[in-house]
Amino acid sequence: MKKKLLLVSVLSGLAISGAASAATSQVTMKLEGSIIPATCNININGGTSSTLSLGKISAAQLKPGQMFELEDKAIRLNINCPSPTMVGFQVMDLGQKAGQVDMNGTKGPSLFSLGTTKSGAIAGGYVVHLEKGTIDAQNVYNFISSETGETWQVSNGTLNSVKKDIISWGATSTLSPSIGLSHQIDMSVHSYINPIAEKDISDKIDLRGEATYDLVYL
After folding, report:
1. C-beta separation of 144 from 177 below 8 A
2. Distance (Å, whole) CA 113 – CA 137
3. Is 18 helix (H, G, I), strand (E, B) or coil?
4. CA nearest 184: which of 76, 89, 47, 41?
5. Is the N end or the C end of the chain the one with fewer CB atoms within 10 Å?
6. Lowest-pLDDT range, 69-73, 135-139, 147-151, 175-179?
């Protein structure tokens, strides 16, 4: 019996000793946070959406086998930031058969959709071209494009319809975006109607195009 008591006593002593050695003698404090880009607002023609009217085109105006071109439309993109920020944008065509649009039989990445005929043919399309711009009332020196946002080249001024390129601009001749509070970009939209087959010309054709302009922080 004494041996059992002695064993319990020894084990208890070891347990107390282990607890003492595991006592906390240090605590850790961590600080976490993040610095996020200033939030900018983007608008097109003064709003979050803008509808450009192409009017009503009489089928009598269309000549067999010939493309019909419409009057250019002007749009203005404004990006306003609370602090000087480098920004750009990407465009994405949301029209019918986007990415498959042709101009009189020739396809290209700069062609946006204006919808299809009843038979599924591409009714027409449009091209968006950069015209001029300002950064804080200072004229844009050149428009630049990049696939990654890391290296830049001078843009040819025609927008890609499949969100491939980031478009930005600089107030100097260097190939890099410029920071600013107020960015204003003027663009033109050139629309056209493809030659319409006789089987489609007897039906009403609705010309509908839609594209998004996504703000990109650089």
Report:
1. yes
2. 33
3. helix
4. 76
5. N
6. 147-151
Domains and CATH numbers, the chain: 38-217 (2.60.40.1090)
Contact criterion met (CB below 8 Å) for 81 and 177: no
Cβ 79 vs Cβ 136: under 8 Å: no
pLDDT digits (tens, 9 = 90+) for 145-164: 998 899 999 999 999 998 88
What are the strands, taking DSSP E only, across the chain? 41-44, 68-69, 73-85, 87-93, 102-103, 106-107, 112-113, 124-135, 138-139, 142-146, 153-154, 166-170, 180-193, 211-217
Task: Determine the Cα–Cα distance for residues 8 and 16; give it in Å rounded to an integer.
Answer: 12
Looking up tokens 């030659």 gives 195
Closest CA to 152 of 175, 118, 129, 127: 175
Phi, psi of 184 (to 5 degrees): -130, 125
According to DSSP, the β-strands at 68-69 and 142-146 are unpaired
Alpha helices in 53-169 (DSSP H): none
In angstroms, the Cα distances linking 7 to 10, 12, 18, 46 are 5, 9, 17, 87
Residue 144's Cα: distance from chain center in Å?
A: 15
AA identity, residue 146: S
d(CA 176, CA 134): 15
